[in-house]
Specification:
about 280 residues
Length: about 280
């Protein structure tokens, strides 16, 4: 397999898995064992491509929040959920996004300082996929019961915003957990019973979170001099592939969750995790 084709496949894998609740980190760790290990800069870059795609999808939503701070209404067309928000509501939403991001930033820096991370081997990723699938089924069940009791609620409360921030830190520590899955389901369990609203908050808060993480890692890569040895053609191919496939994947997911639960993703995680545990030698 040529290097450009391998880069293309890695970009596609990143774009598909970054925002679906199946773990992009886990998939990339596994894929690189067959397609070749890549530099930190490469992995950071293709993640940035996926982030860019989501920022484009939510560009009106983000612009609407900026308008709110100027005291102007954000029309329904500025929100993928089609909800017209007053300036006060949009400002409140933006502040809660900021609180979630700040929680993640502080927690992430603390985790890095303490050196808390799992080894990047297949076995813990496989178990994270399986356990994450079980968590999704349980969370889906209890979220449905909560929705039946409370009704459809799309509001994001302050405790939910903080919990989403913590969930992002946990997902970062455990490869295979899935940032999107952890954040969506913690929001559902804590009272945002509208699946699309919970998903939107998880995706939008991922934009500053992942841009910040990308920037932080990029500075380290540039300081170390790794950029001088990068294959920029392969990098460009993977970046574009990641952006395009992430755009399509997120658009599809936003339509899918309007009428479907996340159960199918949980069973996919079971199947992949079980296959890895059966096929890959322990510790490799």
């Amino acid at each position: 397999m040529t290097d450009l084709l391998a880069a293309l496949l890695l970009g596609i894998i990143e774009g598909i898995t970054e925002f679906l609740p199946i773990s992009s980190t886990g998939h990339l760790l596994i894929a690189e064992r067959w397609l070749g290990h890549r530099s930190d800069l490469f992995n950071i870059g293709i993640q940035a491509g996926a982030i860019l795609a989501v920022a484009l999808i939510y560009r009106k939503r983000l612009w609407g929040m900026l308008l709110a701070f100027a005291g102007r209404d954000a029309p329904a067309s500025h929100d993928p959920l089609g909800i017209t928000a007053t300036p006060a509501q949009s400002r409140d939403y933006a502040l809660k996004l900021g609180a979630a991001f700040a929680t993640t930033a502080v927690g992430g820096l603390l985790v890095k300082k303490l050196g808390w991370e799992l080894p990047e081997t297949v076995t813990p990723v496989a178990w994270a996929l399986v356990l994450g699938g079980a968590w999704m089924l349980l969370a889906e069940h209890f979220a449905a019961r909560r929705a039946a009791a409370l009704g459809e609620r799309s509001a994001i409360t302050w405790p939910i915003a903080i919990a989403v921030g913590i969930a992002q830190v946990v997902a970062g520590v455990f490869p295979g957990t899935s940032r999107s899955g952890a954040t969506i389901f913690i929001a559902l369990l804590m009272g945002t019973t509208h699946r699309a609203a919970a998903t939107e908050f998880a995706f939008v808060v991922g934009i500053p979170t992942m841009f910040a993480a990308t920037g932080y890692e990029l500075i380290d890569v540039l300081k170390s001099g790794q950029a001088a040895n990068e294959d920029w053609a392969a990098f460009a191919v993977a970046f574009v592939a990641s952006a395009v496939t992430a755009f399509v994947a997120v658009k599809w997911l936003l339509r899918y969750i309007q009428s479907h639960r996340f159960t199918a993703f949980a069973f996919y995680r079971f199947a992949l995790g079980a296959a890895l545990l059966a096929l890959v030698p322990s510790g490799s």
